[in-house]
Design brief:
six-stranded antiparallel beta sheet, six-stranded mixed beta sheet, 23 strands
Length: 792
C-alpha cells in the first residue's frame, strides 16, 4: 500500500476515532449531567405534589386543633349539651364552606357523641363504612392520645375515595383538666381537590389507591419518602410517590408523566457541538495533508522510484538528485554516496566469498562427523527417557495401590468397629447394664477402650499418609477458641476420669472471640498433645494454658499443655517427633500407641503457620509442650475479658447437655448390608424416636425409596451405606437423583480418604458421616441437613 494511501487512511482513522471518542465522552460525562438534572427536576415536581397533599392534611389538622381546644366542645363531649349542637353543628352550610364533609365527636370510651358525613354538593348524609357507626374500639389508631398535644393525621381509604383525616384530643383551651375525647375531621381527596392541587403545583398528576393501581405500576411503587422515576420513552418521564395512611403504610400512589425537555435540548446542544468540532477537525487535517504532500510525500515518491529502479537493474552507478534542501534532499545525497560505497564493498565481498567458500567446505566435512556422534547420543537419551517414564509409572501405580490398600484397610476395620463400639456403648448405657457384675462392666469398658485405641491408630496412619502425599487440605474459617477448648475437654473427659486426673483449661489474659484457623486440624493437634499428656500422667493434673501473642502483622494463639507425668530424658526428646517412634521400646512397656500423634501434630501445626515444641521435660517432673498457630490479622480483632479457669475434674459425661434433637415422627430408610450394623443403627434411630425401614443392598434402596414417594409416604431421610452388594451407595444415590428424588440422602461409609467426601457429593449425597457411628453426630447431621434440603 502506498504511503499516501496509508496517510489518508490514518487521517480518516484519526477523524473517526476522534469523533467517536468525543461523542463517547459527551455520552458518558456530559449527557448524564442532563439526565441527572432532569431526574432531580422530576423529583422536585413530585415532592411539590406530595407536599401539597400534606398541606391539605395540615389545614385539616389546624382547623381540628382549633375546635378540639374550644371550651364549648370540651363541655359538649362531657355532658352532651344539645345547645352546642343547635348553635354550632346544625349548620351544614358552615362545614361545606370550610370544605370539611366529615366530623366525629368521640368520648374517651370510644362512643360516638355526634357525627356528620356530608356530600358537599347536595348536603346529603353519606356513609363512609370504614369508620364505626356508633363506637370506636378503645385502641383504635385515631384515639391513641397520651398527651394533649398528640395529633394523628393521615389517609383512610373509603368506598367514596381517599379521605384526608386528622384527629386531636379534646381539651380545655387553657390546658387544664383531663382529655375528654377525640375530635376527628376529614376531607375527601376527590377530582376537584386534585385539580385544585394541580393548579397550585403546576404539575399534572393523578392520585389513586395503591391496591387499585395496575400491576405494572404497583410493582414500581416506592416506599417511605422515596421518589420513583422511570423513563417511558425518549420524550417522557414517569414519576411516582406515595402518601401513607394513618398507620404509616403507603396508601395512595401519586403518578405524573413529565416531558423530557432538559435531555432533549441537552442532546441537541451536544450534537451541534460535536458536528462543529468534527468539521473544524476535518479542515485542519485537510490542510495538514496538503502541506505534507508537497513537502514530504512527492519527494519521497521520487526517491522511492529511484530505489526501486536500482533494485531491479542492480546498477549501482545510477544517481538521484533532488532540488530540495530539507532532510529528504540530504537523504537522497547520502543515498548516492551509499551506492558508491556499496559498489566498492561488493567488489571486495566477491573476492572474500570465494575464499570463504573453500573454508566452509572443509568445515562441513568436520560437522558431518559431529552429526553422527549427536545422533548416537540422541538415541541413548531416548532410551533413558523411556526407562524413566516406566519407573515413574511404576511409582505412581505403587502409590495408587498404597492409597487403595489404606482405604480398604480403613473400611475393613471401621465397619466391624462400628458394631463393636456401638454395642459396647449401648450395653453400658442400657437398662440391663445394672444386671452386669463389676467384672463384666469392666470387660465391656475394656472392649470399648481398646476399640477406640485401634480406631485412633488407623486414623493416625491415614492422616500421616495424607500429609506425606501432600493431600492434606487446610480450610480457614472464623471459630471460637473457647468453643474449641470445650470440645477438646469434652472429648478427653472419659480418659481423665478413668485415671482420676484433673484436666484444667486456663486463660492467660484476654483471648479473641474468634480466630481465623482450621478448627478441625487445631482440635486434632490439641487432642493428640493433651491426650499424650494424659496417657503419660498417672497422678496429678493436666493443664491447658491459652494465651494470645500479637506480632506486627498477625496474631498467634499459644496453647501450653503442662502435665505432672513421667517426663522425658534429653535423648528421648530428640526422637519425640519421629513417626513410629516409641520412647519406651521394652517388651513390657506401660504405654501403648503408634508413635504418630506428636509427629502428625507437629506437621499440622506447621500447616497452620505455627509449631509444636517441647519447652521443658525431665524424668518424674512432668512435661511442658507448647503449641502455636496463626489466628488471623490484627485488624478488627475483638478480645473478650479474661475467662475463668475451666476444669473437668468432677464432671460426669452424663452431665453434659446434648445438642442433638430427637427424630420423633421421622421415617428413615437404612441401606446397610452388615447385620450387626443394621441392628446397631436401627436401635440408635429408634431410641431417637424414628421409624426405620432396613434394606441390605443399593438396588433395593432405590426401589423402596421411589415406591414410598409414589405411595405418598416419602422417607424423611435415606442413610446410604457406600459399600454394598448388587449396587453400591454411589450408584444408588446417583440413580435416585436421576429419577428426580430431592429428599435427604446421608452417606454412611468407612472410607475416610480425601476423595471420599467429594465422591459422595458428586453422587448426590447431601451429607457424609463415617463409621464407627457417633450417635449424637448422626442425629445432629440428619437435623442440620434436613433444614436445607427440599422435601422429596
Amino acid at each position: 500500500m502506498a504511503l499516501r494511501t496509508r496517510i489518508l487512511l490514518a487521517i480518516a482513522l484519526m477523524v473517526t476515532v476522534y469523533g467517536s471518542l468525543h461523542y463517547a465522552l459527551q455520552e458518558r460525562i456530559v449527557y448524564p449531567n442532563f439526565v441527572s438534572l432532569e431526574r432531580e427536576q422530576a423529583a422536585n415536581d413530585m415532592n411539590r405534589c406530595r407536599e401539597a397533599i400534606h398541606r391539605e392534611n395540615e389545614h385539616i389538622s389546624i382547623f381540628c386543633d382549633d375546635w378540639s381546644t374550644w371550651d364549648e366542645a370540651y363541655q359538649f363531649v362531657q355532658d352532651g349539651n344539645q345547645t352546642f349542637i343547635d348553635s354550632n353543628l346544625a349548620s351544614r352550610e358552615f362545614f361545606a364552606d370550610v370544605n370539611l364533609p366529615l366530623v366525629y365527636f368521640v368520648d374517651t370510651q370510644g362512643k360516638i357523641i355526634w357525627k356528620q358525613v356530608l356530600d358537599l354538593d347536595t348536603l346529603d348524609s353519606l356513609d363512609v363504612a370504614v369508620l364505626p357507626a356508633e363506637r370506636f374500639p378503645v385502641n383504635h389508631v385515631l384515639l391513641r392520645h397520651t398527651t394533649a398535644d398528640d395529633c394523628i393525621t393521615g389517609t383512610i381509604m373509603t368506598r367514596l375515595g381517599p379521605l384526608l383525616i386528622a384527629a386531636h384530643p379534646i381539651v380545655r383551651g387553657d390546658g387544664s383538666g383531663a382529655i375528654r375525647g377525640t375530635l376527628i375531621m376529614g376531607r375527601f381527596l376527590n377530582d376537584d381537590a386534585v385539580r385544585r392541587l394541580i393548579s397550585q403545583t403546576r404539575v399534572a398528576f393523578k392520585v389513586q389507591p395503591i391496591d387499585e393501581a395496575s400491576s405494572d405500576i404497583a410493582g414500581k411503587t416506592p416506599t417511605s419518602d422515596e421518589i420513583g422515576i422511570e423513563e417511558l420513552d425518549a420524550g417522557r418521564l414517569a414519576a411516582y410517590a406515595t402518601i401513607p395512611d394513618i398507620d404509616g403504610k403507603p396508601a395512595l400512589l401519586i403518578q405524573a408523566t413529565l416531558p423530557r425537555e432538559v435531555t432533549v435540548r441537552g442532546r441537541a446542544a451536544l450534537q451541534f457541538a460535536a458536528a462543529s468540532l468534527l468539521a473544524g477537525g476535518l479542515m485542519v487535517l485537510v490542510t495538514y495533508f496538503a502541506t505534507l504532500h508537497w513537502t514530504v510525500l512527492a519527494p519521497v515518491s521520487r526517491l522511492t522510484r529511484h530505489v526501486v529502479a536500482v533494485a531491479k537493474t542492480k546498477d549501482l552507478t545510477k544517481r538521484v538528485s533532488l532540488q530540495t534542501r530539507n532532510e529528504i534532499g540530504m537523504l537522497a545525497a547520502e543515498f548516492d554516496r551509499m551506492m558508491q560505497g556499496l559498489k566498492q564493498h561488493r567488489d571486495g565481498l566477491e573476492t572474500a566469498v570465494r575464499e570463504r567458500t573453500a573454508d566452509l567446505q572443509t568445515a562441513n566435512l568436520a560437522l558431518e562427523g559431529q552429526r553422527e556422534i549427536l545422533i548416537s547420543q540422541h538415541a541413548t537419551l531416548l532410551q533413558t527417557n523411556r526407562e524413566l517414564q516406566t519407573a515413574k509409572e511404576t511409582a505412581e501405580a505403587a502409590n495408587h495401590a498404597k492409597n487403595e490398600f489404606l482405604a480398604n484397610v480403613s473400611h475393613e476395620i471401621r465397619t466391624p468397629m462400628t458394631a463393636i463400639l456401638g454395642f459396647a456403648e449401648l450395653l453400658l448405657e442400657s437398662d440391663e447394664s445394672a444386671e452386669l457384675n463389676p467384672d463384666q462392666v469392666e470387660a465391656v469398658k475394656t472392649i470399648r477402650r481398646n476399640g477406640e485405641q485401634l480406631l485412633e491408630a488407623i486414623n493416625d496412619i491415614l492422616d500421616l499418609s495424607r500429609i506425606e502425599a501432600g493431600r492434606m487440605t487446610i480450610e480457614t474459617v472464623p471459630y471460637s477458641p473457647r468453643q474449641l477448648l470445650a470440645d477438646v475437654t469434652s472429648t478427653l473427659r472419659n480418659r481423665t476420669e478413668e485415671k482420676g486426673l484433673s484436666l484444667r483449661v486456663e486463660f492467660d489474659g484476654p483471648i479473641p472471640k474468634t480466630i481465623e484457623t482450621d478448627p478441625i486440624r487445631l482440635r486434632q493437634i490439641l487432642i493428640h498433645v493433651a491426650g499424650n499428656a494424659i496417657k503419660f500422667t498417672t497422678t496429678g493434673e493436666v493443664r491447658i494454658i491459652t494465651s494470645t501473642i500479637d506480632s506486627t502483622s498477625c496474631r498467634m494463639m499459644q496453647f501450653d499443655v503442662i502435665d505432672t507425668g513421667v517426663g522425658m530424658a534429653p535423648e528421648q526428646i530428640g526422637q519425640l517427633f519421629t513417626p513410629f517412634t516409641q520412647l519406651d521400646t521394652s517388651t513390657t512397656r506401660r504405654f501403648n500407641g503408634t508413635g504418630l500423634g506428636l509427629a502428625i501434630s507437629k506437621r499440622l501445626a506447621g500447616m497452620l503457620g505455627g509449631d509444636v515444641i517441647i519447652v521443658r521435660s525431665a524424668p518424674d517432673a512432668g512435661t511442658h509442650v507448647r503449641i502455636t498457630v496463626t489466628a488471623g490479622p490484627l485488624a478488627g480483632a475483638a478480645a473478650t475479658e479474661t475467662p475463668t479457669t475451666e476444669s473437668t475434674q468432677h464432671t460426669h459425661p452424663d452431665a453434659a447437655e446434648s445438642d442433638t434433637s430427637d427424630l420423633a415422627g421421622w421415617r428413615i430408610l437404612l441401606a446397610e448390608d452388615g447385620p450387626d450394623n443394621q441392628r446397631l443403627i436401627t436401635h440408635v434411630l429408634q431410641q431417637a424416636g424414628a421409624e426405620v425401614t432396613v434394606v441390605d443392598d443399593g438396588r433395593r434402596a432405590v426401589e423402596t425409596t421411589l415406591e414410598s414417594r409414589r405411595n405418598g409416604t416419602p422417607f424423611d431421610a435415606v442413610l446410604m451405606d457406600i459399600q454394598m452388594p448388587e449396587m453400591d451407595g454411589y450408584e444408588a444415590s446417583r440413580q435416585l437423583r436421576e429419577a428426580g428424588y430431592s429428599g435427604l440422602i446421608i452417606a454412611l461409609t468407612a472410607h475416610v480418604m480425601p476423595t471420599d467426601r467429594e465422591r459422595c457429593g458428586a453422587a448426590g449425597c447431601n451429607g457424609y458421616t463415617t463409621k464407627p457411628i457417633d450417635r449424637d453426630d448422626l442425629i445432629r447431621t440428619l437435623r442440620q441437613h434436613a433444614e436445607t434440603t427440599a422435601p422429596a
